[in-house]
Amino acid sequence: MNSKVIILALGLTFCYPALRAQEAAKSELHQRAEAADQKKNVAEARFTYIRAFEDYARAGKPQLAVECGTKATGLYYRENYYKEAFDLLHRVSDAITAAKGITDAQKAALYYQVVKERMQMYMKLKKGESVREQLNTMETLANQSGDPQVKNDVLYNKAIYHYSFGQVQQGNAVFKQMADNLAASKDYDKMDEVYQTLISNARKSGSAQMVAQSYSNYLAWKDSISEVRRLDETGALKKQIAENEATIADKDSSLTTRQAIIWGLGILAAALAAALVLGALVLMRYILLSRKQKKTIQLANESNALKAKFISNISAQMAPTLQKLDQKKPEVKALIDFADHIQTLSDLENAPEGSIEVEDTPLQPFCENLMGQVRGKEKQGVTLTVNAPKMSAAINREYVGHILRHLLLNAVEYTPEGGSVKLDYKKRGAHSHQFIVTDTGCGIPEEQRENVFKPFREIKDLTEGDGLGLPTCKQMAIRMGGDLEIDPQYTRGTRFLLDLHS
Fold this sequence. Notes:
Layout: H1 3-14, H2 17-22, H3 28-38, H4 42-58, H5 62-78, H6 82-98, H7 104-125, H8 128-145, H9 148-164, H10 168-184, H11 188-205, H12 208-257, H13 259-264, H14 269-322, H15 330-350, E1 359-362, H16 363-374, E2 383-387, E3 392-395, H17 397-414, E4 420-429, E5 432-439, H18 446-449, H19 469-479, E6 483-486, E7 494-501
Parallel strand pairs: 2-4
Antiparallel strand pairs: 1-3, 4-5, 5-7, 6-7
Helix pairs in contact: 1-5, 1-11, 3-4, 4-5, 5-6, 5-7, 6-7, 7-8, 8-9, 9-10, 9-11, 11-12, 12-14, 14-15, 15-19, 16-17, 17-19
């Protein structure tokens, strides 16, 4: 998804939810336009969006009309049809002006979307003065709308403007203001979405400095919010403990006052004993829960410590490369690759829970193709072998191919002359698969095996590798419901085991 669509989706999330709730579901034309857009049929999607816009305008549904009109505008200037894009925005503005049954504040929110779309075009044209004019108009409309979400959207677009035109300090100041607003309302998920959008825009801008700055700010914010959340959870747990202790104290007091009666009422002794046993079980369950919570807090602290160390390291790693921003130099390429690898790892770590798509894959040609991609890179006399049966398995080709290709490249790099590299497949059960990559290289020392799958363990020269390959492979394996491990029993080199469960 390109940055234009991301920003539009974010804007629609920010703006006028009450008005949208008053309007009917999407029309058939609207759905057809979205389907064509997803298939990247630009001309068909644009034409259908315009028809949907016209129908909505006639039907008195201004919010849906604005949504379709701005999407069609984006499809125009994506192909550099700027005149048509500006003309269509004029028509959308006219439709808002003619709309009936909505308040002035709601109209301001709709005009805001039109002006924002115009600002996006000037951003693409790199007309800084025109962008500033549109931002001023957006700020006025946001104030007229009275919607704090629209006001936050203005701050977000201001930050994008400053970053895009190299005004990093101003961008940080505006972005901090928006982050403080969202943090004050404890809207952490929305803030995380905004940061992810900023990072995506930075990567698509091709600015390594903007990637580094935005991702460093994101990590710093995420660690601070994690600490706030941890403190909130700890406070809630302490409150729960205090309430339970007070309850237990009240029960103890009640039991004490009734002790004299219990001695005289033998018939109630058994019932009271059962109540005490039940209270003991409740207390034991509470103690076990408290221990589990303490362990969770400890793991969170360890994770925060690793992230804090990374934040301190990333500047040190990138600083020497940023000083030599020459595309012909290996340092610059290493930095750009590092930013891509960080983004990939971040996407995997932040991806929502859900099943990974798989497809039936013939294993022998799949494995042979992977080995063919590394063939020719091995040292003299190294034997490359594939042992895969003539059968198919349901796997995610992208993730499995990425993992095995990385393992094979490492294997041929570290295997000396006369050695061997093997790629094997074994079916371990009805729904269990295992890919095995074995080499006769120098091996990985036992004391280092625990850390090879952990990112950001040390500061190193990025031109010699950034150490994110195996951690990324590990995350991919986990996303597929499997795991990637080193075989501790193999001692004549290194053997990696990729276990998958379908």
